[in-house]
Protein: NAD(P)/FAD-dependent oxidoreductase
Organism: Arthrobacter burdickii
Amino acid sequence: MESSLEHLDVVIVGAGLSGIGAAYRVSTELPDKSFAVLEARSAIGGTWDLFRYPGVRSDSDMFTLGYPFRPWTEPKAIADGMSILMYIRETAEDPRIQKRIRFRTKLVDAAWSSDDARWTLELDVTDDDGTTERRRLTCGFLYLCSGYYNYEHGYDPTFPGLGSFEGEVVRPQFWPEDLDYADKRVVVVGSGATAVTLVPSMAEDAAHVTMLQRSPTYITAVPSRDKFSDAVRRHLPAGIAHHIARAKNVLFTQAFFQLCRRRPELAKKLIRSQTARILGDDTLLNENFTPAYNPWDQRLCVAPSADFFRALKSGKASVVTDTIDTFTPHGIRLSSGKELEADVVVTATGLSMLPLGGATFTVDGKPVNLGDSWVYRGLMVSGVPNLALCVGYTNASWTLRADLSSRYVCRFIKYLDRTGHRYGAPAADGGMKAHPILDLTSGYVQRAVSAFPKQGDRQPWIMRQNYLLDAPTALHGNLAKDMVFDVPAPPSTPAPDLQEIHA
């Protein structure tokens, strides 16, 4: 081990919503620990700085997507992307966080040494002049808060005849700032959260927007403002009001998720009734808003203030359920023979998942194969010491689990210090039945499931999608269960008292 290498107690990877929250927790709960936040890009915000497509917004309420330690004070509960970005940036202005962020620093390789009880990180660091060089540092604990999406490459299916299309093709992930779609015909390919966001936003200026979906998706209308939370905020201090609103929304979203899982037919009926009431068109409902799967087999899409449905009712937007036969010079010919004319096609076909941010990992010289590993308490990986992954909920706000994970990491590091251990790694026992880490049938999950660790069939190896169950475990659970630690160092012998020597 090179003695000249910089060593930090904790390294956090990613300066997005999760990473900034993690930095706050480490700085306040482990004030004596040295740490840094490594951000591959040159700006704070992660997803919310990268995605700039029209209408980009949260699909979770800000009382749960926001940090529990920083009350959300803006009027809208479902916030636009720029408001969320400003919220993250303002949080990062805390001097305890701001001075720890290292921009244009990308993790390339991480090697754990049990002898040294530390990670050696290989980093690509880009200087102000654009020059990139390889640098190294070491750390005692590595916390990955970079999410599980590939932000450099989205899912890009092959479209027949795409080269013949004379219009413009745009990916939401890389939205061109100078794109002019005013008074143009737009086709949005896809029916996920991005498409449901784009359609009403682009319909305000486009001649017409068509959402082309291969199969229907569940879309629920939610209020942009939370009347209960507004009332609470009028009568109580901001911090207390924020926690009450957060608790109410946690209970509501968890109750609805449980209804979808336990009584799917009733959940279908409720969603269908809401959509029918808004649209007032049974044919449109039956053809385009009646999915074949159960609610929460895939993520539900939300339409704040029913904006998506209002765009349809206004005639500025429409939905077509069909598959693509081929692109043509002036649009898309469908398998039914119908042709959608288009000046702009937006391929909202989803993101690709990328484990560990694309970096390679080894433990004592052996490569880490996530697909052969098990996830522990939703954040650690079997056989890998002093490493945690920040993975949010799929059925609720990402930050709910992200913050629990950060607090668990702080508890774990305190436990190591208290017990004299240098490191610990989860140890999976045999006989567990394997399940995918994310229990969704969505295409982006199924395409990448083998690259991620498995979850088991019992605690602490289940990736629970339940904040109410996870919170007690993360904050008070047994830190030693199913863990293997190194041998504690012997306590140091105190120096003898000089008076005793002379006595």
